[in-house]
């Protein structure tokens, strides 16, 4: 038998000491100092003309341009999302004509600059002076002058919305492809139609993949609306340009427009986060995000069941 040695004395509780991350503290201090310097420089810079910014921040012309920007963003994104879903379904259709038509549309709209498309729609009368419906080589049932039918507002919607549909089609297609093919086979075995499978099985699961890039596209659309200035439509940037063309206060008017864009982008970002949280509920991704924020706020994460001290509970330093 081997000898056993008995130790006498008191045993001390093991005290876990978290790892010291001195580099993080140094980086945090440096960033904080640089942020204070930058903020102080912006606030105290007389060339910013903050008093002029305050005078025009809620000017009627600025607010009217802001309203038009929001209207363009919402309607264009609705056109883009609906068109993107239809194009994605067509692109994945077994019908070669539908798939080919969707592929050509996406290739054409993504392959040409958006500003070119806006100008094309605004000057569509150069190619088609009159738009109408009727029998080929026969009488026209309904028709109208193109310049009357395609106003700058309609041209803006067509340019922004149809271009966005091409990008949304690829986003939706990627989300649909992320759904496990076994579920499609199961729904087919249950006798579900292709449309019902898409509505009840595929799209609800694909939304987790579709929502984040769609939110990014919405934020990008908010700023892309400024391109409609080339066709003379009145929106936020156009209103700022018209004002500083009269009073030559270029810098403060640009700052005014930038502040409104930042505000609207921040609101859209919060909305996007809430929608992502809704569609990610019950998934491992949602738990990971929740624990990540708990770690940042409180310095620890809970284990299974979210009960402190429970099985699998852990403490992070």
UniProtKB/TrEMBL annotation:
Keyword presence, 4Fe-4S: no
Membrane topology: Multi-pass membrane protein
Metal-binding found in the keyword field: no
Keywords: Amino-acid transport, Cell membrane, Membrane, Transmembrane, Transmembrane helix, Transport
Family matches, as InterPro entries: AA_ABC_transptr_permease_3TM, ArtM/GltK/GlnP/TcyL/YhdX-like, MetI-like, MetI-like_sf
Listed GO MF terms: transmembrane transporter activity
SUPFAM superfamilies documented for this protein: MetI-like
One GO cellular component term: ATP-binding cassette (ABC) transporter complex
Coiled coil (residue ranges): none
Organism domain of life: Bacteria
Compartment(s) where it occurs, according to its Swiss-Prot or TrEMBL record: Cell membrane
ABC transmembrane type-1 domain: residues covered: 66-272
Sequence intervals crossing the membrane: 25-43, 70-90, 102-128, 148-167, 250-271
GO biological process, one term: amino acid transport
Family membership: Belongs to the binding-protein-dependent transport system permease family.
Full protein name: Amino acid ABC transporter permease
Protein source organism: Amycolatopsis acidicola
Lineage: Bacteria, Bacillati, Actinomycetota, Actinomycetes, Pseudonocardiales
């Amino acid at each position: 038998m081997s000898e056993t040695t008995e130790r006498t004395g008191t045993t001390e509780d093991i005290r876990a000491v978290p790892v010291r991350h001195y580099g993080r503290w140094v980086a945090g201090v440096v960033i904080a100092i640089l942020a204070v310097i930058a903020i102080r420089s912006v606030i105290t810079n007389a060339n910013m003309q903050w008093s002029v910014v305050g005078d025009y921040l809620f000017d009627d012309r600025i607010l009217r341009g802001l309203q038009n920007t929001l209207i363009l963003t919402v309607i264009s994104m609705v056109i883009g999302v609906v068109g993107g879903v239809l194009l994605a379904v067509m692109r994945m259709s077994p019908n070669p004509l539908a798939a080919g038509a969707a592929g050509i549309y996406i290739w054409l709209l993504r392959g040409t600059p958006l500003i070119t498309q806006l100008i094309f729609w605004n000057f569509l009368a150069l190619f088609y002076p009159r738009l109408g419906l009727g029998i080929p080589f026969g009488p026209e049932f309904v028709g109208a002058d193109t310049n009357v039918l395609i106003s700058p507002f309609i041209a803006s919607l067509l340019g922004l919305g149809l271009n966005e549909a091409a990008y949304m089609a690829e986003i939706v297609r990627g989300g649909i492809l992320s759904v496990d093919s076994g579920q499609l086979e199961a729904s087919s075995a249950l006798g579900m139609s292709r449309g019902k499978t898409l509505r009840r099985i595929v799209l609800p699961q694909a939304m987790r993949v579709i929502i984040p890039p769609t939110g990014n596209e919405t934020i990008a659309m908010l700023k892309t609306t400024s391109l409609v200035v080339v066709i003379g439509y009145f929106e936020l940037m156009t209103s700022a340009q018209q004002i500083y063309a009269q009073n030559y206060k270029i810098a403060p008017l640009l700052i005014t427009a930038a502040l409104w864009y930042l505000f609207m982008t921040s609101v859209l970002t919060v909305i996007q986060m809430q929608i992502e949280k809704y569609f990610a509920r019950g998934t491992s991704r949602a738990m990971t995000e929740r624990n990540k924020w708990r770690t940042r706020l409180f310095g620890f994460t809970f284990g299974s069941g979210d009960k402190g001290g429970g099985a699998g509970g852990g403490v992070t330093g």
